[in-house]
Description:
Layout lengths: L4 H21 L8 H9 L33 H13 L5 H6 L7 E2 L5 E5 L4 H6 L6 H12 L8 E4 L19 H18 L3 E5 L1 H8 L5 H4 L4 E3 L2 E6 L2 H6 L3 H18 L5 H4 L7
Parallel strand pairs: 2-3, 2-4, 4-6
Antiparallel strand pairs: 1-3, 5-6
The structure holds iron/sulfur cluster.
Amino acid sequence: xxxxxxxxxxxxxxxxxxxxxxxxxxxxxxxxxxxxxxxxxxxxxxxxxxxxxxxxxxxxxxxxxxxxxxxxxxxxxxxxxxxxxxxxxxxxxxxxxxxxxxxxxxxxxxxxxxxxxxxxxxxxxxxxxxxxxxxxxxxxxxxxxxxxxxxxxxxxxxxxxxxxxxxxxxxxxxxxxxxxxxxxxxxxxxxxxxxxxxxxxxxxxxxxxxxxxxxxxxxxxxxxxxxxxxxxxxxxxxxxxxxxxxxxxxxxxxxxxxxxxxxxxxxxxxxxxxxxxxxxx
Length: 281
Ligand code: SF4
């Protein structure tokens, strides 16, 4: 009997949201994960290759295809695809593999000049497979918009690509441990080497410490240029911090960091942009 690729793909796509819902609502959690499905998909003939979508994805407007011209494609797309497959099936941290719904690879433009780096996926990101989609993510999207970019122009990734596990029956998110970030960091480093951003923005102290591999204080480093493997690195507050501290002064600090980023990238900065979050005289 010959297999029907479309029917099989449809079955996979129908199964995923059910598993995600079970993962969210049931204790103990089901053992099947997105990684299991990715492994299953990887075992199929190439004609089955089609991205697995979440239920939410099916209601989204299709993402614009990033134009690939022969003079622009330097081979990174193929290399990133191979890297993505390795990351999505990574099992270096058994305790995180046991608790994750899926690996959160990152999202955005493989030719991005600007890369935002966070610390780790939270509960919502773990379920949806995309970084920065909760309330903090929505604020990040607004910051990106104020910089005159869209999420499709830049790239967003985390240092830790699996959600930090939580004690049984506890919800919420925990900070990734230094050892966990050190284990996962080589994946991000490879993404950076292939994407070749001109600037990296580290969102929050944990992200900075994860990149640099050493403790630091936000007071000393925020708004000052650092270096990550030759790429200028701007540390700024995590958007979640701004949600907790909604003063004009704190918003202005982050915005001034973003103005430095725009300046470094050689982007035009309008008078309106210069004036965002300034105290009215
Ligand atoms: S956190 Fe990173 S290194 Fe650990 S299992 Fe996930 S992808 Fe692999």
